[in-house]
């Protein structure tokens, strides 16, 4: 009772405290308290009551809201509103043309089809929601004083949840307790970002030192955190304890919904965000919907159809008014009186007739066009998914289409913007060479090892390639290859089986650890450097034995050991064991490890877990600790005579058991490189990193802070207390261009040498990183720490404050050395870029890499050609105007910007700093002029924001279709800005894929996706849309108005009029729009320039719409007047004459489709046969069973009589031929006399396979082949790039123009 009254008092006090808070603060933060404090209080007193519950509802509709909400959404499409208006107009007696109920049929059918599709999709979402909401989890109950099972949907913000190993998190939970002795919890975030490596999360600092299990009843703290947001990599807040102490909260304390608990038996946390407020749900946007270029063109033509409709109705209304006017006061006997029984004036008759004709001619606007397009696009996506050439066996992944309605845009791309690392390259980082203290170590044996892998790659491609796909080397193929040095025993066992299935199983197992193929792990050390490492270790062992200070170690050897220590600890790599996958390595004795480090002997228990950017101690405890005088200790305290837990043989064995879970391939490569020199990372805790060094055993570095990498600083730092010297040391690694600027001035000689080696590394295409360190005095660290802790506990502007804090620390660094890491090109990249270039696509590469590295890779992947002259633009100050070189760069004397002469002989290389100036409003036009004059553009050292700005600039200024492709989080903004975004499902997670419209396993698949499927999708949809406009424009009733006084009467039964376009002629065009192939896939890939057909919109030009309209009017004339003259002066009734006209129109429309169809399959024949059979079946049944359906008309037995009349069959033979003769003649002449490249490709497909392949091979070699496009030099007036004619190219020496 006392406890409950105390809790009630606390609840009351906290309520008063909350009321005093400012409203502005409440708008920016969220306050979370434990629900168990309010179990006995009324519901309105619970401060968490306003937060979302954990029930997920991704459905759009309920049973009651489905009909009104779905109709409301469908009426957002203007066409549906128009058709409903027409149908309702039929209910007005004075203007109706058809039976009102019958006129509703088409629009009801279209709305029903769409509604059924939406309902089915929503039902699937409902089933998924129900399954998720009814999963179980353990929630603490105050009444039962234990954890009880509840459904996920019953969880609330403020509940305590117990989590067990391999369970999925039901909500965003703040970690308060863990069964792990180090208070860690490991999670797998693959469902959020696709990354399979384990992430460490740690208990909130104030709950770190609990000696017993966490008791929710003793929890009395208040949590202040930020409002729900979708940033997966950020969480800011603090926890206020009853004592008033305030501890900062970080993303490392938060477990996100959807993640899986690993390697932790139990954990307890409090729910911070639930349901739709969790970060996972806020990131779940579903498929993306865009508007394609073709659809925008189509909407213009729909507008023209409306204009034509209004003109025809106006013409008929004027004609009717004049016809009525000629009678004067003498009314015709058949005139219909007004509802009041009076005569209508000619003007009123014309107005009513205008509305009637809108109803009659409504077919001119294709009501089923939009639904048909959606159906065809879904079918196209299905067939793209079924293409096995786009399936990657190694990763067991295939193409994903996330935007369902822009498939045709793939056939109209003009510019491609690509990332480099992970997109063009493998993103398999392999340590290649390094320089330490100004001395370079070439690692020749390691180079030979990598060359062996490349040779095995080429051999395997020759032996095992099949079906047009080339297997790519990684952990799978490495298991099948010849032995290489340092291969592990488990890998050998897989190699001995020789079975592809076994190798694939081995690959699946290895996927649990990213970046861990033998090629990446098995580094061959450089003998010279290995000798120095051993010499350094032996000297340190000697100094330890003789109790000599470490300062006596020669500086070059000291730099070497510091270099490898930095490689080992300056990262976020988690250590695990492969024998028990996903299990953390248990060190032999934590106490013995701590005893080996002098810095961890004193006050270790009172300071368990020191400060980092992830978790920092309170300012008071840390600063107090700094002020304490440490007892004097000699080296006998720093080392034991025999290193604890160290034995050379045991070390080798343990090394084979360690597995590194890295968040990036660069980190893994550097840790594996250090391990090759016996400097091994063997354990990582939130407050310490354990490293094993030769001769010295295991040393534990007290980890004070981790300053993570960001795209602005371009570096990462760790602050540690060195166990050998007891000094606070900063180790930093980062991009050389940024790190060189913050080095000490007295080390210029080493910096100069290192810079030269870095340039050589970059010239070899290696990725470069610099390694540096800094020793802080106690006063310097205390001064910096005070402000850093203030930054850490801030909620508003925390990122900016932490950034400034990192900049203050990372100054006056001592350069240790640099590394060169090789990132191999993906298979097929040079060939893909060459093909895309021949297809008229302009390719720009936007990368954050060093300029020399990017240029070397650009040459390797054929982006840059040795014959090109390279313009290199590097700016060093704001007054630099790099684009003034443009007029003088051309040998032509003309300075005009309209026709750049060197368009296909220049390559542009520009760095990030220059790009910042180039994107300025005053220079962007000049930049575009220079860039468009170049065959290739390479932007180096560019930030994610610059990438997106470049894409946006080109897209908006040049009005071209753009595609952006990348694989990492830094490419997301670029992917989202482009017309089409493509994500590579590579090794950097799934952020790019989740933001993309299409996802590919490899860059090389882009070739077939664009050149084949893009071409097909565009060609099919363009022709289908034109056919729709033509089919609906065959308006037979218009000509009849000249014979009925423009009264709106029809000679065709209204049933045929209503269902003609909706049923009888609908199916064949859907089949053609889905399956038609104008050119085969093989020819399209062999002749890439056929892709220009889509770039220039050759299949859908504005004049084609008008040509189809004219053709439709001509065909309607033929179909009307031939039967008219055939039945002239006969006694047939109106429907006996009108029904043959309908039949002839159907035959003509279907034969017209046959002329336009390029590929005939059994489904084409079946659909046409079905349409004709359906028409005659409906006609026969309707004419036999419905004599009085539409009184006074009588269609009884009409079709039966016609089928007995020879004249009907004669008309069916003559009329379609006469109607289609002009179109057939035009197609025949065009294909024979003026064939387009696509028609030539289609003719090639008809040749025997061997002859066709010979011609195709000749066309690629022979200059000036008739299949080659004419040389389309780019001009500033023309936005679309074209392919280049090799005959007009000149050779230029490869040169890098010096910076202007």
TrEMBL record:
Pfam families: Cation_ATPase, PhoLip_ATPase_C, PhoLip_ATPase_N. Its EC number is 7.6.2.1. GO terms for cellular component: endoplasmic reticulum membrane; phospholipid-translocating ATPase complex; plasma membrane. It is a multi-pass membrane protein. Its cofactor is Mg(2+). PROSITE patterns: ATPASE_E1_E2 (PS00154). Residues 44-101 form the P-type ATPase N-terminal domain. The keyword Phosphoprotein does not apply. Its main location: endoplasmic reticulum. The chain crosses the membrane at residues 78-96, 102-120, 302-327, 347-371, 1105-1128, 1134-1153, 1165-1185, 1207-1226. Residues 477-491, 609-624, 1291-1300 have a biased composition (Polar residues). It catalyses: a beta-D-glucosyl-(1<->1')-N-acylsphing-4-enine(out) + ATP + H2O = a beta-D-glucosyl-(1<->1')-N-acylsphing-4-enine(in) + ADP + phosphate + H(+); ATP + H2O + phospholipidSide 1 = ADP + phosphate + phospholipidSide 2. The keyword Repeat does not apply. Mg(2+) binds at residues 419, 421, 967, 971. ATP binds at residues 419-421, 667, 709, 733, 767, 847-849, 941, 947, 970-971. GO terms for molecular function: ATP binding; ATP hydrolysis activity; glycosylceramide flippase activity; magnesium ion binding. Keywords: ATP-binding, Endoplasmic reticulum, Magnesium, Membrane, Metal-binding, Nucleotide-binding, Translocase, Transmembrane, Transmembrane helix. It is found in: Endoplasmic reticulum membrane; Membrane. Gene3D superfamilies: Calcium-transporting ATPase, cytoplasmic domain N, Calcium-transporting ATPase, cytoplasmic transduction domain A, HAD superfamily/HAD-like. Residues 625-636 have a biased composition (Basic and acidic residues). The active site is at residue 419. It comes from the Eukaryota. GO terms for biological process: phospholipid translocation. Residues 993-1236 form the P-type ATPase C-terminal domain. This is Phospholipid-transporting ATPase. It comes from Lates calcarifer (Barramundi).
């Amino acid at each position: 009772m006392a406890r409950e009254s105390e809790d009630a008092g606390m609840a009351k006090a906290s309520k008063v405290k909350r009321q005093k808070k400012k409203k502005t603060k409440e708008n920016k933060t969220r306050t979370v308290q434990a629900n168990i404090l309010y179990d006995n209080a009324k519901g309105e007193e619970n401060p968490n009551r306003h937060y979302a519950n954990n029930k997920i509802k991704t459905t759009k509709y309920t049973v009651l809201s489905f009909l009104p909400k779905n109709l409301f959404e469908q009426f957002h499409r203007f066409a549906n509103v128009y058709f409903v208006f027409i149908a309702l107009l039929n209910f007005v007696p004075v203007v109706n043309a058809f039976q009102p109920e019958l006129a509703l049929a088409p629009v009801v059918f279209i709305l029903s089809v769409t509604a059924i599709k939406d309902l089915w999709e929503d039902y699937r979402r409902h089933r998924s929601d129900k399954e998720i909401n009814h999963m179980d989890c353990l929630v603490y109950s105050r009444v039962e004083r234990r954890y009880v099972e509840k459904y996920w949907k019953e969880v609330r913000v403020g509940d305590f949840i117990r989590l067990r190993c391999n369970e999925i998190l039901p909500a965003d939970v703040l970690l308060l307790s863990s069964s792990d002795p180090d208070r860690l919890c490991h999670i797998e975030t693959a469902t959020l970002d696709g990354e399979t490596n384990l992430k460490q999360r740690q208990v909130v600092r104030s709950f770190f030192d609990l000696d017993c299990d966490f008791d929710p009843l003793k929890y009395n703290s208040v949590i202040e955190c930020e409002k729900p947001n979708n940033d997966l990599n950020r969480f800011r807040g603090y926890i206020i304890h009853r004592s008033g102490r305030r501890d900062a909260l970080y993303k490392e304390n938060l477990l996100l919904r959807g993640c899986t608990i690993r390697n932790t038996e139990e954990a307890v946390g409090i729910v911070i965000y639930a349901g739709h407020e969790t970060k996972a749900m806020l990131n779940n946007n579903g498929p993306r919907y865009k508007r394609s270029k073709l659809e925008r063109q189509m909407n213009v033509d729909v507008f023209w159809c409306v204009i034509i409709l209004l003109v025809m109705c106006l013409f008929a209304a004027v004609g009717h008014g004049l016809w009525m006017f000629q009678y004067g006061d003498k009314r015709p006997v058949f005139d219909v009186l007004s509802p009041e029984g009076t005569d209508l004036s000619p003007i009123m008759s014309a107005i009513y007739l205008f509305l009637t004709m809108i109803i009659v001619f409504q077919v001119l606007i294709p009501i089923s066009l939009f639904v048909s397009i959606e159906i065809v696009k879904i079918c196209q996506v299905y067939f793209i998914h079924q293409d096995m050439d786009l399936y990657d066996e190694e990763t067991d992944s295939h193409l994903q289409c996330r935007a369902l309605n822009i498939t045709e845009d793939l056939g109209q791309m003009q510019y491609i913007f690509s990332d480099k690392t992970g997109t063009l390259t493998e993103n398999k980082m392999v340590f290649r060479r390094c320089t330490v203290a100004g001395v370079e170590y070439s690692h020749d044996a390691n180079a030979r090892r990598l060359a062996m892998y490349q040779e095995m790659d080429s051999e395997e491609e020759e032996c095992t390639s099949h079906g047009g796909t080339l297997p790519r080397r990684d952990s799978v193929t490495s298991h099948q290859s010849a032995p290489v040095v340092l291969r592990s025993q488990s890998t050998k066992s897989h190699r001995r089986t020789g079975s592809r299935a076994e190798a694939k199983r081995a690959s699946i197992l290895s996927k649990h650890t990213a970046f861990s193929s033998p090629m990446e792990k098995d580094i061959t050390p450089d003998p010279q450097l290995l000798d120095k490492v051993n010499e350094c270790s032996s000297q340190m062992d000697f100094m330890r034995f003789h109790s000599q200070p470490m300062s006596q170690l020669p500086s070059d050897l000291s730099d070497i050991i510091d270099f490898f220590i930095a490689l080992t600890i300056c990262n976020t790599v988690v250590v695990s064991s492969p024998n028990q996958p996903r299990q953390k390595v248990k060190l032999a004795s934590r106490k013995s490890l701590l005893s080996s480090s002098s810095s961890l002997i004193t006050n270790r228990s009172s300071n368990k877990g020191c400060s980092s950017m992830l978790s920092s101690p309170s300012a008071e405890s840390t600063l107090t600790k700094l002020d304490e005088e440490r007892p004097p200790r000699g080296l006998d305290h720093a080392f034991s005579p025999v290193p604890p837990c160290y034995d050379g043989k045991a070390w080798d064995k343990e090394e084979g058991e360690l597995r590194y879970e890295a968040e990036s391939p660069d980190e893994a490569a550097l840790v594996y490189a250090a391990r090759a020199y016996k400097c091994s990372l063997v354990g990582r805790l939130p407050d310490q990193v354990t490293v094993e060094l030769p001769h010295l055993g295991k040393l534990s570095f007290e980890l004070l802070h981790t300053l993570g990498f960001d795209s602005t600083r371009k570096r990462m730092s760790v602050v540690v207390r060195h166990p050998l010297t007891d000094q606070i040391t900063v180790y930093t690694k980062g991009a050389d261009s940024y790190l060189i600027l913050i080095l000490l001035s007295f080390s210029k000689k080493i910096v100069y040498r290192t810079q030269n080696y870095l340039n050589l590394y970059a010239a070899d295409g290696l990725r470069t990183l610099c390694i540096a360190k800094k020793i802080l005095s106690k006063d310097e660290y205390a001064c910096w720490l005070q402000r850093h802790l203030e930054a850490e506990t801030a909620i508003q502007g925390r990122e900016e404050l932490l950034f400034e804090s990192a900049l203050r620390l990372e100054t006056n660094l001592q350069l240790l050395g640099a590394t060169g890491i090789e990132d191999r090109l993906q298979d097929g990249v040079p060939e893909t870029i060459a093909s895309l270039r021949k297809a008229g696509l302009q390719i720009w590469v936007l990368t954050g890499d060093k300029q020399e590295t990017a240029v070397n890779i650009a040459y390797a992947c054929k982006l840059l050609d040795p014959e090109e002259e390279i313009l290199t633009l590097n700016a060093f100050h704001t007054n630099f105007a790099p684009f003034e070189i443009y007029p003088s760069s051309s040998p032509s004397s003309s300075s005009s910007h309209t026709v750049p002469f060197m368009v296909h002989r220049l390559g542009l290389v520009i760095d990030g700093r220059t790009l910042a100036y180039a994107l300025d409003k005053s220079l962007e036009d000049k930049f575009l002029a220079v860039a468009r004059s170049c065959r290739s553009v390479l932007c180096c050292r560019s930030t994610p924001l610059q990438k997106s700005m470049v894409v946006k600039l080109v897209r908006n200024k040049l009005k071209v279709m753009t595609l952006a492709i990348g694989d990492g989080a830094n490419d997301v903004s670029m992917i989202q800005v482009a017309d089409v975004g493509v994500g590579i499902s590579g090794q950097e997670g799934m952020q790019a894929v989740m933001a993309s419209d299409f996802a590919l396993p490899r860059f090389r698949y882009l070739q077939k996706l664009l050149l084949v499927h893009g071409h097909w999708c565009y060609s099919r949809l363009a022709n289908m849309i034109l056919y729709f406009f033509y089919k609906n424009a065959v308006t037979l009733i218009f000509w009849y108005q000249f014979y009925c006084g423009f009264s709106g009467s029809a000679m065709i039964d209204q049933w045929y009029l209503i269902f003609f376009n909706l049923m009888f002629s609908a199916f064949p065009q859907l089949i053609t729009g889905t399956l038609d192939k104008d050119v085969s896939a093989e020819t399209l890939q062999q002749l890439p320039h056929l892709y220009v057909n889509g770039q220039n919109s050759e299949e859908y030009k504005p004049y084609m719409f008008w040509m189809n309209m004219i053709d439709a009017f001509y065909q309607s004339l033929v179909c009307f007047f031939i039967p008219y003259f055939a039945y002239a002066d006969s006694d047939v009734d109106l429907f006996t004459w009108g029904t043959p006209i309908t039949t002839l129109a159907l035959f003509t429309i279907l034969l017209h489709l046959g002329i336009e169809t390029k590929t005939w399959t059994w489904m084409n024949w079946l659909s046409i046969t079905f349409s004709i059979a359906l028409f005659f079946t409906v006609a026969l049944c309707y004419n036999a069973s419905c004599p009085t359906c539409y009184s006074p008309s009588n269609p009884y037995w009409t079709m039966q009589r016609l089928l007995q009349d020879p004249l009907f069959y004669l008309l069916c033979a003559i009329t379609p031929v006469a109607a289609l003769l002009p179109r057939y003649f035009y197609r025949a002449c065009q294909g024979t006399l003026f064939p387009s490249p696509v028609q030539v490709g289609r003719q090639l497909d008809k040749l025997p396979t061997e002859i066709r392949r010979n011609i195709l091979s000749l066309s690629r070699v022979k200059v000036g082949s008739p299949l080659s496009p004419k040389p389309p030099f780019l001009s500033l007036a023309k936005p679309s790039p074209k392919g280049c004619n090799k005959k007009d190219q000149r050779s230029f020496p490869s040169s890098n123009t010096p910076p202007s």
